[in-house]
Amino acid sequence: MNDSKKWWQRFETPGTDLFVDGTDALRKAVREEIRRGAETIKIFASSGRGFNGRTHRNVAHDELMTIVHTAHDRGAKVRAHVAGKAMVLECIELGVDIIDHGDEIDEECIGAMVKAGTFWVPSLIYPKLLLELGWGDPAGEMQKLYDQSRRMLPIAQKAGVRILPGDDYSGVFRDTLKDDPLDHQVGVYAREFAYYAGIEGLNPTQVLGWGTKNAGELLVDGPAKVGGH
Hints:
The protein is of the alpha/beta class and about 230 residues long. It has helices at about 25-35, 60-75, 85-95, 105-115, 125-130, 140-160, 190-195, 205-220, and strands spanning about 40-45, 75-80, 100, 120, 160-165.
């Protein structure tokens, strides 16, 4: 699910962006995607990346629960694009396997992720590039949340959160820049490891483990069984 306030502008890309409303329709859509071969169901649990301070939820509590239960019943994982703390905690509680972004993650979220075995993809190259391009908001919210995520990474690593590399590659800059700095270019992913290893409190061995040990565990682990499921 990828919702938008531009209700008149619907993407016609089946298999990429699906607009589904209500628990029954979501259950059917998840089952159909898995039947077609999907091993991970990606949802947009909340809007944006949280950098403008105006995030909102895209799915109701019962809808999110339905997505997770339906996917897990069929052996598929669920990953959620989510920004705000409250929604991050809700996703973890209901058994979402992978948190994408999580701009407002703090120590409470870290504790919940450790307990549930949740994976986290911080994807900080994207906001880093936006800030370097001068696209930060006047109030400095983007810089504030970017700094917050960087500060949380060593804490999460020490606590035992299974962090993963990865970012919003391909297309996020395509409408505005001739050469997309997040395009799928040979070797471009390697900069993630150098970037994260340069954060105080992290080291190259730990960050390499994100792309090897942690990624391997994601591939072999079954879906999380938390949140009463």
